[in-house]
Write a structure and sequence with these properties.
Blueprint (H helix, E strand, L loop, with lengths): L12 E6 L4 H5 L1 H10 L3 E5 L11 E3 L4 H5 L4 E2 L1 E5 L5 E6 L1 E2 H8 L11 E2 L2 E2 L5 H11 L17 H7 L13 H8 L9 E5 L4 E4 H11 L6 H11 L6 H6 L5 E7 L1 H5 L14 H16 L22 E3 L10 H4 L8 E7 L2 E5 L6 H12 L11 E7 L1 H9 L4 H11 L1 E3 L22 E3 L6 E5 L7 E9 L8 E4 L3
Parallel strand pairs: 1-2, 2-3, 12-13, 16-19
Antiparallel strand pairs: 1-5, 4-9, 5-6, 7-8, 10-11, 12-14, 14-21, 15-20, 16-20, 17-18
């Protein structure tokens, strides 16, 4: 092992690494004292107390530079080091015959038992290993470091610097960022996207910083990266989603094996609180838009009211038990692919139908609720996602209705004469332009209705996510594959 120019300078000879908080290290103090007399030179590094062992010249290794350089996992460790700083022999713990063979000194510790196992090196403590990685591996991090005063609370510092969405953040220390980066094989300096509205570079590292602040685990990180890519596409138009005065924000729908692997919720309370993956993945995307792209409320974000989903909105589709193919499959991906689909959603509208036992009756309930999306007199201006619960899904399955059939029937039920929709009709000034009078007008285009299966097994409740303006002038649903 070469220590390199940054490693500790160690004389040729015997090297021991110990710590006071180790019974075996205490046990071998007489042996180390004997070796200092009979087999010099002996260099001793102490991991926790520069006054230990007593009676010996000890080098302070509380920063663990030598311990990491020598790859010490167990203390005591005894090594022979040559003139080039290479370890030529090494033993861990206390075993008399091994120490005698390594040192060439017989009769070591005659009064001691012949064997005692060592203790874990401080380098094996998780927090210590992370701190060392941030000093070494942290050189790969390029983001500006923000120094926090010794008397300053780190969480309050995040608030004061404007990074927060209003809730406490996890301080993005180098150790935590490096751990997050372990969730992907992508390089920290790789560009993920240009984030509107400022069109700022979002590297993998910048995404990791915000994923840390959101509370993500490293295994969630590939989903976060895919969501950022989808949000920053021209089709999704996150700049417009921010700038509109409407309620909308990105809703993330996750499909495929990764949703199960990271423990996402697609069942009971799938759209609510309580699941870490659901909560933090959606929040990480929102923090990237805020902190990297500059999309803050009162700035470019001009929502009149907003909606709670702008904190975080992320859930998985319940593919097992679904009456239909998954959303991702319908959108052209293989069943084995993991994907995210982003939809500019204004919030959750409930569909309550506890009596329908036929697909036709339930479709009519859906149509009645969908008619009110945006406004009952507005049509062809937005898309919608219908989240079908398992109990409602069973009704469609039992009657043999496919997604295509449900969509076709809803388009029929939601087509009305333009005379009912025009401005002023029914005494309401809101409505469609006069040109639609005398014509049948569908509420949605055929590609403007998406269906997702999610929710708990009990309860005949489904939901609608109404969208923003559709098409090139607004936002289109975007699906991206998760790179795992």
């Amino acid at each position: 092992m070469g220590l390199g120019t940054t490693g500790p300078v160690v004389p040729e000879g015997l090297v021991a690494v110990v710590k006071r908080d180790c019974p075996t290290c205490e046990l071998v103090v007489p042996v180390l004292q004997q070796l200092a007399r009979e087999a010099p030179p002996l260099t001793v590094f102490s991991q926790d107390d520069p006054a230990f062992p007593p009676g010996l010249p000890v080098r302070d290794d509380r920063q663990l530079d030598a311990s990491f350089a020598f790859d010490v996992e167990i203390v005591p460790t005894l090594m022979r080091v040559d003139g080039a700083g290479r370890v030529t022999a090494k033993t861990q713990g206390w075993k008399r015959e091994d120490w005698e063979a390594l040192t060439g000194v017989s009769g070591l510790g005659a009064e001691l038992p012949g064997f005692r196992p060592g203790c874990g090196s401080r380098t094996q403590d998780p927090d210590v290993a992370d701190r060392f990685a941030s000093r070494g591996g942290g050189s790969a991090l390029r983001s500006r470091r923000v120094e926090i005063g010794s008397g300053e609370d780190a969480i309050e510092a995040c608030f004061e610097r404007g990074w927060s969405d209003g809730l406490p953040l996890v301080p993005p220390t180098p150790e935590r960022v490096l751990r997050m980066l372990e969730g992907t094989t992508r390089k920290p300096d790789e560009l993920v996207a240009l984030v509107p509205p400022d069109l700022a570079d979002c590297t993998v590292e910048k995404a990791a910083i915000n994923a840390v602040m959101a509370g993500c685990r490293p295994e969630y990180f590939p989903v976060v990266l895919a969501a950022i890519e989808a949000a920053c596409s021209d089709e999704f138009n996150i700049h417009g989603v921010l700038a509109t005065t409407m309620f909308v924000g990105p809703a993330i729908i996750v499909n495929g094996p990764i949703a199960r692997a990271i423990g996402m919720n697609s069942g009971v309370n799938a759209l609510g609180q309580g699941n870490r993956a659901n909560a933090t993945i959606g929040r990480a995307l929102q923090l990237v838009v805020r902190n990297v792209g500059g999309g803050k409320p009162g700035g470019v974000d001009r929502a009149t009211l907003g909606n709670p989903g702008k904190y975080t909105f992320c859930f998985a589709e319940a593919e097992e038990g679904s009456p239909w193919e998954a959303l991702s499959v319908e959108r052209g991906f293989a069943p084995s692919a993991s994907t995210v689909t982003l939809f500019a959603a204004e919030g959750v509208r409930g569909i309550v139908d506890q009596k329908s036992r036929s697909a036709e009756s339930l479709a009519r309930s859906y149509a009645g609720c969908l008619r009110a999306v945006w406004h009952p007199k507005l049509a062809l201006v937005t898309d919608a996602v219908v989240i079908v619960s398992p109990e409602h899904g069973r009704v469609f399955r039992n009657d043999g209705w496919s997604k295509a059939r449900l969509r076709e029937r809803l388009l029929e039920l939601l087509t009305v004469q333009g005379d009912e929709l025009v401005v002023g009709a029914g005494g309401c000034a809101e409505g469609m332009p006069p040109q639609v009078a005398g014509k049948p007008v569908p509420k949605f285009t055929p590609d403007g209705l998406l269906f997702v299966h999610a929710g708990g097994d009990a309860g005949m409740f489904s939901a609608i996510l109404a969208g923003w303006a559709r098409g090139p002038v607004g936002s289109q649903p975007v699906t991206r594959e998760v790179r795992t």
